[in-house]
Specification:
The protein is an alpha+beta fold. It is built from 12 helices and 22 strands. The strands form 4 sheets. Strands 5, 6, 7, 14, 15, 16, 17, 18, 19 and 22 form a 10-stranded mixed beta sheet that branches. The chain has a 6-stranded mixed beta sheet with strand order 9-2-1-13-21-20. Strands 3-8-4 form a 3-stranded antiparallel beta sheet. Helix 9 packs antiparallel against helix 10. It starts with 23 loop residues before the first strand and ends in a 16-residue tail after the last helix. Bound molecules: flavin-adenine dinucleotide (FAD). Flavin-adenine dinucleotide binds next to helix 1, strand 3, strand 14 and helix 9.
């Protein structure tokens, strides 16, 4: 594979004589890494995206069983990057969200929180999209861009960011140099670890059992969240009569359920799921994801920035992890783009700190918020049950509060990067 040499005719304030393999090295070709490469390409930067897994593996139907609740802002970003058209047919608009308290063996109680897209001028709150479609669309878009070099089946084993360039070493001994190194390498980020960036967090003692089910009755675009004592059960609408299940259970019980046959799995799921969608059956492979909170102490370092799960891995209770990562991506690309227009060094601490200031508070607040919601709801304490039912009742009965929550969840409030407002560079 030939690596592009970058034209250094752009006016870079430092090291104008230095030749780099690319402007920005991105470690991690999951979801945030490729999206960042596409955003940077639009902003005029060349990048190299490196992923440890081979391309056929990443593009396989059963590589990752997740389906993402993409906030409206994330959908706008994918549209601005030219990705949305290629996945729109596979996406399911979320028309309503219903949340209820639930008891194992007794299913869900009557709903206590109900959000309807009809209350918002902007249309659907978000869309459900399966990982396989989003991942393939991102890989195809990277391959089609002459600003992006995509290296699959290549593991980064070492890095240095202290000199005149950021450099990574691959397992096969190759070395690549760039102005900036971005870690988009997930929750156990080696980029962060090698840079000495420590992480805070804890294990939730829960594992999410994830799969798609086919059901008899139409879902009408309604997303359901049942708060069971062991953890939340989300039933999220997919195109056709299908739903994505994210069933968080205590880790030991989850392992026991995961070990069972498909029939045993469905027998365990049915009492919690209930019969409101008629008969259910599995529609694909089952997956397990252990749940942990992990926050990087810093999002930046010399010649280095972290995005996505490498910066913050949150509980999936509100389906916000990828949405947060996409906001990092939009913010980082915008900060670098503006810095270049102003003639600043994109690797200076001043510039990188603008990114950190923009994103760190938002992500930490949301991560801890999700943590609290999970603690408040994943138990059977009658006093807590009373408080949360009361709180949710108040939100549900107050239209202004309800709309506020919906706009927040849709990413239509707050200081959103331009791409997430649907604006191109
Ligand atoms: C059960 C569950 C449900 C979820 N549902 C939602 C949802 O509905 N909505 C939502 O917004 N979010 C959701 N999330 C969160 C979302 O899945 C993550 O935030 C997102 O996948 C993170 O993407 P990423 O690209 O940052 O990291 P990853 O997807 O972890 O990608 C990291 C990549 O880095 C590569 N890599 C790692 N180390 C190296 C190395 N040394 N060299 C080369 N490559 C390397 C890996 O191969 C991998 O491809 C959910 C999470 C879970 C667990």
């Amino acid at each position: 594979m030939t690596l592009c040499r970058v034209d250094n005719s752009i006016n870079w304030p430092i090291m104008p004589h230095m030749t780099y393999d690319t402007d920005i090295l991105i470690v991690g070709g999951g979801l945030n890494g490729p999206t960042l490469a596409l955003a940077l390409a639009q902003a005029g930067f060349r990048s190299t995206v490196i992923d440890a897994n081979a391309r056929p593996k990443r593009e396989a139907d059963d590589f990752d069983g997740r389906a993402y609740a993409l906030a409206r802002a994330s959908q706008k970003m994918l549209a601005a990057l030219g990705i949305w058209d290629s996945v729109a047919d596979q996406a399911q608009a979320i028309s309503e969200i219903k949340a209820s308290d639930g008891h194992a063996g007794r299913g869900a109680a009557p709903q206590f929180l109900h959000f309807q897209a009809a209350e918002m001028e902007e249309g659907p709150m978000g869309y459900m999209l399966e990982d396989r479609y989003l991942r393939r669309a991102l890989i195809a878009a990277m391959e089609a861009s002459d600003m992006i070099t995509h290296l699959s089946d290549s593991t980064v084993v070492d890095q240095s960011t202290s000199g005149a360039a950021a450099e990574v070493t691959l397992a096969d001994g190759r070395r690549l140099q760039a102005r900036l190194l971005v870690g988009a390498d997930g929750r156990t980020s080696g980029v962060a670890a090698r840079a000495g960036i420590r992480r805070q967090g804890w294990d939730y003692g829960q594992t999410a059992l994830v799969c798609a089910v086919a059901h008899e009755l139409p879902h009408h675009g309604i997303a359901h969240q049942f708060f069971m004592p062991a953890g939340p059960l989300a039933i999220l609408p997919l195109p056709g009569n299908r739903a994505s299940i994210v069933w968080s259970e205590k880790t030991q019980r989850a392992a026991q359920i995961a070990r069972g046959t498909d029939a045993e799995f469905l027998a365990a799921l049915r009492p919690a799921f209930g019969d409101f969608l008629g008969e259910i059956e599995l529609a694909g492979v089952r997956f397990s994801y252990p749940l942990k909170l992990t926050l990087a102490e810093r999002f930046i370092g010399p010649r280095l920035a972290l995005v996505g799960d490498a910066a913050h891995g949150v509980h999936p209770i509100a389906g916000q992890g990828l949405n947060l990562g996409l906001r990092d991506v939009g913010a980082l690309a915008e900060v670098l783009h503006e810095a270049r227009i102003r003639g600043e060094d994109i690797t200076s601490e001043l510039v990188l700190d603008r990114y950190q200031q923009w994103r760190r508070f938002d992500t930490t607040a949301l991560a801890l918020g999700m943590d609290t919601v999970n603690r408040l709801f994943s138990n059977d304490n009658p006093a807590l049950r009373l408080i949360r039912d009361f709180g949710m009742g108040v939100v549900s009965a107050t239209p202004a509060l309800r709309r506020g929550f919906m706009r927040q969840a849709a990413g239509l409030a707050g200081d959103m990067p331009k791409l997430l407002q649907g604006e191109r560079f």
